[in-house]
Amino acid sequence: MNIQHLKQSFAFHFNSESKIIVRAPGRVNLIGEHTDYNDGFVLPMAIDRAVWLALRPRDDGRLRIHSLDMQPAPPPSTGAQDNPTPDSVFEVHSLTKGSGWLEYPKGVAYHLMKAGYELNGFDAVITGDIPRGAGLASSAAVELAFARAFAAVSGFEWDAPRMAQIAQKAENEWVGVHCGIMDQMAGAASKEGHALFLDCRSLEIQHVPLPKSISIVVLDTSTRRGLVNSAYNERRTQCEEAARWFGVKALRDVSVSEFTRKRKEERGWSEIVLRRARHIVTENARVLEAIELMKAGNVKRLGELFNASHDSLRDDFEVTNSALNIMVECAREQSSCYGARMTGAGFGGCAVALVKEENAAEFVHAVSAVYRQRAGLEAAVYVCKASEGASLMLG
User: Fold this and answer.
1) In whole angstroms, what is the distance from residue 263 CA to residue 285 CA?
2) What is the distance between the terminal CA atoms of the chain, rounded to a whole angstrom?
3) Per-residue DSSP letters for 212-244?
4) Is residue 167 very low, low, confident or very high in pLDDT (cuts 50, 70, 90)?
5) What is the pLDDT of residue 227?
6) What is the value of pTM for the model shown?
7) Residue 230's pLDDT band (boundaries 50, 70, 90)?
8) Rounded Cα distance, 208 and 224, in Å
9) Which residue pairs from 226-235 have beta carbons closer than 8 angstroms and sit at least 24 positions apart in sequence?
10) What confidence tier does 84 reach under pLDDT thresholds 50, 70, 90?
11) Which of 72, 83, 304, 375 qualifies as a FRET site for 260, CA 20 to 30 Å off?
12) What are the beta bridge partners of residue 209?
């Protein structure tokens, strides 16, 4: 990110210098998909792609925001503006629901105030390089960027787990996407060079160092599916139904052996719901094994878990699409690839591959070419580094 360009954009739009720069990263989930809203285990890492804010505090509760990425079309018959105005304005003490990306910062403001925080406003320019809709948590990055900004201008302490919970509430209750806590916690509490093991029930975290000599490669299929209108909420309902059948609070409380035993004993259960449950139960087990493998540097077995995770998401949870399946096949065929799987909510978006570091460039070229040939689509491929959670610097 060109910080100087961001600061210059702020000066142009607000005729003054920014005082604070906020960065909130996207994330890629290494393993543990759809387990978060089942009180389970996940293993994401924050990536070196992020949402950035350049801002200046205000003395009132007003936010004036100019987006460098989502600018509205100019009105007809107008020339260049001598005094450009920001694209979006709202007052934190008189919030009303609307539509579009602005609902994320409005939801954060609402739930911060509901939690007892007193908020000041600010002027801001926002930009980012996280592909939207790709399953890399761009919405959570926006939420956390604004939460970090509110903390900075309003004078309250940054509490990463607490802010992650508030950002999740914003997405659940204001925006209407019933996501779990993983995206927000990864964006708030990650540590550079490490994956973040998260127990989604207790919110306990553990920083797990990435194995040496590997690259994490994100493979964007260039297909998209919006979460609000997808089968995401349906899968969540099916998991809750399965938990009731097992007599537990959440599927996190069912072991693989218990699932196998009860499935043999019971008759008449919905086969679809049982397959959904099997994915969650086995995926939780894969996450717990993955942590130990990463600590031991057993990359070969870790790659096998990646492969098993994708197969489960494809066959039992049914949240892949043809592009994701083709992308994963293309990645697995490369000799430098230990394993690959879809990542994110599914129905499009990205896959993630575990690749030998010295072969990363060759892998990117080969997979892009084969995917183009088989899927007829251009892939965007990112070799990612594990980055720090939401942070700020003086502007």
Assistant:
1) 18
2) 14
3) TTEEEEEEE-S----STTSSHHHHHHHHHHHHH
4) very high
5) 53
6) 0.88
7) low
8) 30
9) 226/133, 227/177, 227/179, 227/345, 228/175, 228/176, 228/177, 230/345, 230/347, 231/319, 231/347, 232/177, 232/178, 232/345, 233/178, 235/34, 235/276, 235/317, 235/319
10) very low
11) 304
12) 194
Would you call 104 helix, strand, or coil by DSSP? Answer: helix
Listing from the earlier edge strand, what are the strands of the sheet with 337-343? Answer: 337-343, 350-356, 214-220, 380-384
CA triplet 115, 117, 123: central angle to 5 degrees? 125
C-beta separation of 212 from 205 below 8 A: no
Give the model's pLDDT for residue 78: 35
Catalytic residues: 183
Nearest one of 86, 87, 104, 82 to 95, comparing CA atoms: 104
Residue 290 is encoded by which pair of tokens? 């993955």
| Average pLDDT taken over every residue of the chain | 92
Is there a contact between 312 and 56 (Cβ–Cβ < 8 Å)? no
Distance in angstroms (rounded) separating the CA atoms of residues 45 and 60: 36
